């Protein structure tokens, strides 16, 4: 019995000694912790008071930076990824709040890309979300029916009241009815057809009182009816001149024009085409030749002309090209400020053109 009591007393004494040692160590550690906290406090206060320079900018400046981060409107950014406005919302809470409160970031929508990430449903949801975030801003839309199911195409295009710029890629006739709706805010329209129109089918868009810029990228142009007389900018690609001329005869207010004849054709010599407001005329470098087109054209306000020497039938000499241009400028009575010649026959053509047109300030010739 006595031995057991002695053992317990010895155990208690030993544990008391261990507890005391631990308490001494704890006190020392608490002192060390307290010292470290005191040492770190000035650095913490300095960091807490520091603001990253970009976060000190006024919100108005941050908004301008955001807008310059995106493609220039009406070109749309991707729906997701590093070049999307959604990327700006993932940096910090302040940027997210600013981005969500900036309608101009969300007003251009691209639904032409194959939707692997995001999928079609997510892409549609994002496009509708962007439409809401854009507030009352006019909208720009790139849309392709080869990518989007009919339900997607119809649901997006039906929100047409605010569409200001619309670029369509149509592979079938199925969606023609969906786009023959009113577009009261539309200023710019681009359509590319990848199908043959039924012979009797015509695409007529309604209520286009604000439309000023049109790009038609297909030889199906004769099947499209637009308010040509109110246009100030027109691009016609991949078509015959006999399709082009009837349209241009209606464009009394046209200021800028780009043409690409997609197949060899010839404008009748007895035709006269007056474009009294035209200032810029560009023939795509791969446009097929139609030397009679300039022979028929009168453009008294023309300031800038670009065309390829090949535009004048192969086999004609450089002298014939210059003679034709001199005749056109003289007949039009225009004061050209820029003449750009592409696909020149010889490398020293620039000097020849400068001698022929000494009054044109800017002449460039590319072989």
TrEMBL record:
InterPro entries, per the entry: F-box-like_dom_sf, F-box_dom
Annotated signal sequence range: none
Pfam families referenced in this protein's UniProt entry, alphabetically: F-box-like
Record-annotated membrane-spanning stretches: none
Residue ranges of domain F-box in the record: 55-111
Gene3D superfamilies xref list: 1.20.1280.50
Superkingdom, natural source: Eukaryota
Protein name: F-box domain-containing protein
The organism of origin for this protein: Favolaschia claudopus
């Amino acid at each position: 019995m006595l031995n057991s009591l002695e053992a317990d007393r010895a155990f208690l004494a030993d544990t008391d000694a261990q507890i005391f040692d631990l308490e001494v160590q704890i006190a020392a550690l608490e002192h060390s912790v307290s010292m470290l906290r005191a040492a770190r406090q000035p650095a913490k206060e300095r960091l807490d008071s520091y603001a990253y320079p970009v976060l000190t900018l006024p919100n108005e400046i941050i908004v301008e930076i955001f807008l310059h981060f995106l493609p220039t409107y009406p070109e749309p950014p991707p729906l997701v990824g590093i070049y999307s406005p959604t990327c700006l919302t993932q940096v910090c809470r302040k940027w997210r709040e600013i981005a969500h409160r900036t309608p101009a970031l969300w007003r251009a929508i691209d639904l032409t890309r194959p939707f692997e990430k995001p999928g079609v449903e997510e892409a549609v949801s994002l496009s509708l979300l962007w439409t809401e975030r854009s507030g009352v801003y006019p909208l720009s839309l790139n849309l392709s029916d080869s990518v989007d199911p009919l339900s997607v195409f119809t649901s997006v295009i039906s929100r047409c009241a605010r569409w200001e710029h619309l670029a369509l890629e149509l592979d079938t006739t199925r969606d023609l009815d969906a786009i023959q709706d009113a577009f009261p805010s539309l200023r710019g329209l681009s359509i590319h057809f990848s199908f043959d129109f039924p012979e009797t089918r015509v695409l007529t868009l309604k209520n286009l009182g604000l439309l000023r810029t049109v790009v038609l990228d297909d030889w199906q142009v004769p099947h499209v009816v637009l308010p040509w007389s109110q246009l100030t900018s027109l691009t016609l690609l991949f078509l015959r001149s006999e399709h082009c001329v009837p349209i241009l005869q209606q464009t009394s207010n046209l200021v800028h024009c780009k043409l690409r004849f997609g197949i060899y054709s010839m404008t009748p010599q007895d035709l006269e085409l007056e474009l009294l407001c035209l200032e810029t005329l560009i023939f795509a470098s791969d446009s097929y030749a139609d030397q009679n087109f300039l022979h028929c054209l009168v453009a008294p306000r023309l300031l800038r002309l670009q065309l390829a020497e090949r535009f004048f039938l192969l086999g004609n000499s450089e002298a014939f090209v210059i003679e034709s241009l001199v005749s056109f400028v003289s007949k039009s009575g225009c004061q050209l400020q820029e003449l750009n010649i592409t696909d020149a026959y010889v490398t020293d053509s620039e000097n020849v053109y400068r001698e022929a047109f000494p009054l044109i300030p800017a002449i460039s010739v590319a072989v």
